[in-house]
Design a protein that fits this description.
With about 70 residues, this protein is mainly beta. The chain contains no helices and 3 strands. The mean pLDDT is about 95.
Length: about 70
């Protein structure tokens, strides 16, 4: 299972030696579900079932001052 991450950065000059960086980062951009192995206990009522999933999309925004 592959998940794709994506980042966008933009620098803006404020003064000669000062910059501001705006960043946006996407983790698991395609929102692909990651499933665990099915239940392998023969005596369980949920044998063979996958009862959960993980891998939700996360978006992170940030501002950074460079001097």
């Amino acid at each position: 299972m592959r998940t794709y991450n994506f980042s966008v950065f933009k620098h803006f000059g404020i003064r000669e030696r000062t910059k501001v960086e705006f960043r946006t980062e996407f983790f698991n951009l395609t929102n692909t579900a990651i499933f665990p192995n099915p239940d392998s206990n023969f005596n369980s009522g949920t044998f063979g079932e996958i009862r959960s999933a993980s891998g939700e999309r996360v978006v992170q925004l940030g501002v950074r001052l460079l001097f």
